Amino acid sequence: MFKKVLVMLTTMVVMLSLTTFDIGAYTGSNWMGTIDGSKSLTQLSIPGTHDSGARYEPVSGTAKCQDLTIAEQLAAGVRYLDIRCRHIDDTFAIHHGLVFQHIYFDDVLDDCIGFLNSNPSECIIMCIKEEHTPSNNTRSFEQTFDSYVAQNPDKWCLTATIPTLGQARGKIVLLRRFNAVTVPKGIDATSWADNTVFTIDNGFAKLKIQDKYVVPDNNAKWTLIQNLYTEAKSQNFDRLYINFSSGYKMLYGILPSITTVSNFMNPKLVTYFTSNTSGRYGITAMDFADTGKCSLIINTNFN
Length: 303
Prior knowledge:
Layout: H1 2-24, E1 45-49, H2 70-76, E2 80-88, E3 91-96, E4 99-104, H3 105-118, E5 124-130, H4 141-151, E6 156-157, H5 165-168, E7 172-176, E8 187-188, E9 197-201, E10 206-210, H6 218-234, E11 239-244, E12 249-251, E13 255-257, H7 259-275, E14 282-286, H8 291-299
Helix pairs in contact: 2-3, 7-8
């Protein structure tokens, strides 16, 4: 009898140690691998970036939103990418407004597909929006997008509904902000409202988004962020919450200052997730994401 009890206790200790090891063993590159694939993406806390490709600017503080490359963002744990594409010469050039960011959509996809090939337990939610003025095209934005998908169709999840993690693993989940004739083509977010907090319920997917990007008052913006976190933690687990900590403040009435907002918000995010270490907070789309902030958000999935 004593021997049986000893074996049972030993087995329990081993199982507990393995569980601790599995949860503690994730990195920024593979953290989704420790999450049950039956969970919907709506049930997770996900680090993201706003204007993910924006790393260049003509005037300091006016266009750059990230220090890390796309590949570096993914390695840090980012799983939501905000990709802004100018349609030019039947290709997509990555822009922030009128500012070309010295990379193309091919470069973004190379980084994403390379990452997913190396980390098949992960998925990437990619929000795609048309940016700036189209030029010298012989086809629609949608047709050019389709040409990119055709290069690696098995790497895309284009369902109109929000998938489970298991359905999305190894794929890019499209969140579509451009009009499409052929549907379903990803999660339809074409009714995206401007500079506010809003909901989308298109019959296939439910979203709630805080994207107040003109920020005359940092404290008011932070209140909006906190309010959405509070709702995400306790309500509507079938709804995808997207919370933008990004924004800009106009200086002297003429220049947008991104860092005036990000330098306030990023320490607030660190403080918030240092105290709020457990729960479901949806997607946080940040300016100047880094490993530290991403890790704090990721950890809330496991504590």
